[in-house]
Amino acid sequence: VEFSYCDLTSMKSIRQFVQWFRAKNCPLHVLVNNAGVMLVPERKTEDGFEEHFGLNYLGHFLLTNLLLDTLKQSGTHSHHARIITVSSATHYVGKLHLNDLQSRCSYSPHGAYAQSKLALVLFTYQLQHLLTANGSHVTANVVDPGVVNTDLYKHVFWIVKVVKWMTAWLLFKTPEEGASTTIYAAVSPEMEGAGGCYLYNEERTKSADIAYDEELQRRLWTESCKMVGITD
């Protein structure tokens, strides 16, 4: 195991990390996009993005795109490289505001978080479409880990923290249990060559109807490219 620092709120840090990784000249068979914040107060990343959208979504969008060439070179017909992006059931209630992706008009921690998680699902579907059209031996899938007992809840109201403390042993998954579907997507032979799936409890399931809107997928992709400064 080797650790390298990468700050997903910083486009500069992401580019430095990718430069470091490329210099190692290693193959890349599995990329798991798992960083995230939830219900943070209104604040911006160093690049001026609303933090939920900037960290949860744009950071992963840029990282994945900068590593795509390496992923394509690493995948083969019999062993595809795999991209797994961790979203949330919250995406079902999310709304994508293309004219206000930074939530400047009216900020809601819940709305901003849900939007970032919906964006990850739309991104995954569009990415898989582009990979298929390109004939690449890379698959992209999105995972819902369920409700997991982690520090992600440190910004919720105190009463929610109390309820979580009292019921976590019964209602919440352990981190190990929460990781199981991500691991399944990353290494299971059943997922070989399968892309564009939404996975929950190690099974393919249906995401929100809006996530299948191909026009919305394309528009988000184009806008995201502009925001992070890469070619569409």
Automatic annotation (TrEMBL):
<comment type="similarity">
    <text>Belongs to the short-chain dehydrogenases/reductases (SDR) family.</text>
</comment>
<comment type="pathway">
    <text>Protein modification; protein glycosylation.</text>
</comment>
<dbReference type="Pfam" id="PF00106">
    <property type="entry name" value="adh_short"/>
</dbReference>
<keyword id="KW-0520">NAD</keyword>
<dbReference type="GO" id="GO:0016491">
    <property type="term" value="F:oxidoreductase activity"/>
</dbReference>
<dbReference type="GO" id="GO:0005811">
    <property type="term" value="C:lipid droplet"/>
</dbReference>
<protein>
    <recommendedName>
        <fullName>Polyprenol dehydrogenase</fullName>
        <ecNumber>1.1.1.441</ecNumber>
    </recommendedName>
</protein>
<keyword id="KW-0964">Secreted</keyword>
<dbReference type="InterPro" id="IPR002347">
    <property type="entry name" value="SDR_fam"/>
</dbReference>
<keyword id="KW-0560">Oxidoreductase</keyword>
<dbReference type="InterPro" id="IPR020904">
    <property type="entry name" value="Sc_DH/Rdtase_CS"/>
</dbReference>
<dbReference type="InterPro" id="IPR036291">
    <property type="entry name" value="NAD(P)-bd_dom_sf"/>
</dbReference>
<comment type="function">
    <text>Oxidoreductase that plays a key role in early steps of protein N-linked glycosylation by mediating two non-consecutive steps in dolichol biosynthesis. Acts both as a NAD(+)-dependent dehydrogenase and as a NADPH-dependent reductase during the conversion of polyprenol into dolichol. First catalyzes the NAD(+)-dependent dehydrogenation of polyprenol into polyprenal; polyprenal is then reduced into dolichal by SRD5A3. It then catalyzes the NADPH-dependent reduction of dolichal into dolichol. May also acts as a positive regulator of starvation-induced autophagy.</text>
</comment>
<keyword id="KW-0551">Lipid droplet</keyword>
<keyword id="KW-0521">NADP</keyword>
<dbReference type="GO" id="GO:0005576">
    <property type="term" value="C:extracellular region"/>
</dbReference>
